[in-house]
Design brief:
Shape: elongated
Helix content: 40-55%
CATH superfamily of the largest domain: HPT domain
Number of domains: 3
Structural class: alpha/beta
CATH class of the largest domain: Mainly Alpha
Oligomer: single chain
Strand content: 5-15%
């Protein structure tokens, strides 16, 4: 006869083994998601790409929670937050690719940490994840994170539209149970919930957030309702009627209560220093990332090459002002490519891209004639600034 302890042991062992198999399968899924995100930079297929990412992320998230891999669920939630706010404008996602790629990096590291059962690494990832943001903020300040809970997606979309010029990051949940799960694992500055929602109503959700050991006991709370009753006013910091103009009322509240201000419009950096650029890198993925980064310099004429020989052939017809070189490539590496360009009469600026940023290696490249050395991986959003700085 099997004892309860033996049954429990067998169950725990089976669950652990199943979790390991699940994590092993995620490695391929992660690569698929990353490739689809990179594909968002191509025009015309955004809707299909977003649907593909959404399906994969939703599948990962559900199983991760069952196995207790809460960090993987959190990353999936953050990716879903950005996907759920898509309004159909392709420009929205070319500007968010950098953030989405950073989240896939967190996903990869979380998979590795859970697979190796490295608690210290998981703690480090959790801390770094809390610092990452999809919002543009002045001076590197943290954005205001807002959790919106309503069965209808349009509530979150309306708020996102009204707050698009402000340093905020919006997350959405369709029911109280899902929202409570996020409140227990993530930091939010503001909780906006409808009173009538599924599984846990809005007033109960606000009370549980204050009573349980969540990460958000001091979060500002806003209750949305079709009829403001006296008892509802006591349940939240603010009560707002669900009517036309509700989003603008919330914006005014946040401006007053949290001193929220619009992000100042940045002055575009001039590309007058350089007119033409050659990128030489054997990775098509790097070509896509550089194309994203160079959208900050629309007047710059850029040509892309997978090897030094084809770049040199094009140089003889149309020499560039700036040469952006991968260090490690088959046949000609970055050094030899630059050497061949110099022999052919190239007198412009050379910049290396490399994952080896040891000071001694960087100095060798500078001595070889490079103006600077940029690290891999790099942020597409900051690439042009790094080139000019």
């Amino acid at each position: 006869m099997t004892s309860k302890s033996e049954t429990a042991y067998t169950y725990e062992e089976e669950l652990k083994q199943s979790g390991k198999e699940y994590l092993a399968g995620l490695k391929d899924v992660h690569e698929d998601i990353e490739n689809v995100i990179l594909g968002l930079s191509k025009q015309g297929d955004e809707a299909d790409a977003l649907r593909s990412i959404t399906r994969k992320i939703h599948s990962i998230k559900g199983a991760a929670g069952s196995y207790g891999f809460d960090l993987i669920s959190t990353v999936c939630h953050r990716v879903e937050d950005q996907l759920s706010l898509y309004s159909g404008n392709p420009q929205e996602y070319t500007s968010k690719i950098d953030f989405l790629l950073s989240q896939t990096d967190f996903l990869k590291r979380a998979i590795q940490a859970y697979s190796s059962e490295n608690r210290e690494q998981l703690a480090n990832i959790r801390a770094q994840l809390s610092e990452s943001t999809a919002a543009e903020t002045p001076g590197g300040a943290k954005p205001v994170r807002i959790l919106v809970v309503d069965v209808s997606r349009w509530i979150g979309m309306a708020l996102a539209s009204s707050l698009k010029k402000y340093p905020v990051e919006i997350a959405m949940c369709a029911n109280g149970y899902a929202a409570l799960g996020r409140l227990l694992n993530e930091h939010f500055d503001v909780l906006i919930t409808s009173n009538v929602i599924e599984t846990i109503d809005g007033t109960t959700l606000i009370r549980l957030n204050q009573e349980l050991a969540t990460a958000n006991p001091r979060a500002r709370t806003i209750l949305l309702t079709s009829n403001i009753l006296p008892e509802l006013k006591k349940a939240a910091d603010y009560c707002i009627e669900k009517e036309k103009g509700f989003a603008e009322k919330i914006v005014k509240l946040l401006e007053t209560d949290l001193k929220l201000k619009p992000v100042p419009q940045q002055i575009k950096t001039s590309a007058s220093q350089y007119k033409t650029l050659f990128l030489v890198d054997d990775s098509p993925e790097i070509h896509l990332l550089v194309k994203m980064g160079l959208k900050a310099a629309p007047e710059l004429k850029t040509s892309y090459f997978l090897d030094g020989k084809s770049a040199l052939a094009a140089f003889k017809k149309n020499p560039p002002d700036l040469l952006l070189l991968d260090l490690n490539m088959p046949e000609w590496d970055g050094r030899q490519t630059l050497q061949e360009f110099r022999k052919a009469g190239f007198a412009g600026t050379a910049i290396f891209l490399t994952g080896d940023t040891e000071p001694s290696e960087v100095q060798k490249l500078l001595n070889f004639g490079a103006l600077k050395v940029l690290p891999k991986p790099f942020s597409p959003k900051n690439l042009w600034k790094m080139i000019l700085s």
